[in-house]
Amino acid sequence: MTEKRPLGLPSAKLVAIAAVAGILAGAVAVYVKQTASGNGTEVADAAQCAGSVEKAAALKPFTTGEVAAMVAAAEPRVIDGLSFKDQADKDLTLADFSGKTVLLNLWATWCVPCREEMPALNALQKAEGSDAFQVLAINIDTGTIDKPKAFLEETGVDALGLYRDASMGVFNTLKKEGLAFGLPATLLIDGKGCLLGAMNGPAAWDSPDAKALIKAAAGS
Known about the structure:
- The protein is of the alpha/beta class.
- The chain is 35% helix and 16% strand.
């Protein structure tokens, strides 16, 4: 019998999707480059990230199994200025989530692996969400809010909220910095807005492996 993963996909299928996501990354990047630019935010080093590389290195034993594709940050990088909007069209940046460890996930309704992993991200938020940790899923559909809103409602994703960047600027900024090559793209960020790790492709975010990584990152 084929072993099932918490994501709801057979192991082989999940691996295949991740591989396809990697293959398609170039095509997605070309599409983004032709349709949108960055959102004006630069990813930069700063003194505030002193110690972040050491913390990222300490998380390496937890980047295994279902989250083995998470790559630890090798240099201090501040990314708390990335801008996006909430469902009420209010302007936000990652700095608004200061003090929390954040799992930043970029997704779109046209991205099949993204759609597959959203319920798992929702489950992770329900299990581990707190004053110390939040899953921040940012939709980058370029149309109106209707399609992503309907998708979340239809799939019962009720714990994540709807955050958007219809300009795709967040994706383009992270792409320029070598952190996002396609969708889904996921970053683990500490409470000071400093990068701890990055992953391209889907993961079973409701798995024990993922929860162990988040607990270690958030210090819970």
